[in-house]
Write a structure and sequence with these properties.
The protein is mainly β. The chain has one domain. It is built from no helices and six strands. A two-stranded parallel sheet has the order 1-2. It has a two-stranded antiparallel sheet with strand order 3-6. The protein starts with a strand and ends with a strand.
């Protein structure tokens, strides 16, 4: 089963208005072979969204080091996808 978690630190609703923290987050995740991870991240309307990713470590006999990475809008529309071991995605956001 796939579950979703926020990419930014947890904040209480009363801690800040529309902007809820930093505009840059660095984190690493370990994903098992054929595993899935899902994250959601707040983005301001009419802003820029950047995502860089890379496979840093592979164990066992894995020969395919690619990641299938997608970014979806809040409505579920596919914004961009890539299937590579290293990549960067960037685009202008249209909705919050």
């Amino acid at each position: 089963s796939v579950w979703s978690r926020k990419s930014e630190p947890s904040l209480h609703e009363s801690d800040g208005g529309l902007f809820r923290g930093s505009d840059k987050y660095d984190f690493a995740v370990e994903v098992a072979a054929a595993g899935e991870e899902c994250f959601w991240h707040f983005a301001h309307q009419s802003g820029s969204f950047y995502l860089s990713y890379m496979v840093q470590w592979v164990t066992g006999i894995a020969i395919d080091h690619r990641l299938f990475v997608t970014v979806n809008s809040p409505q579920g529309d596919l914004m961009v996808s890539e299937n590579a071991p290293v990549g960067q995605m960037n685009f202008q956001t249209e909705v919050t």
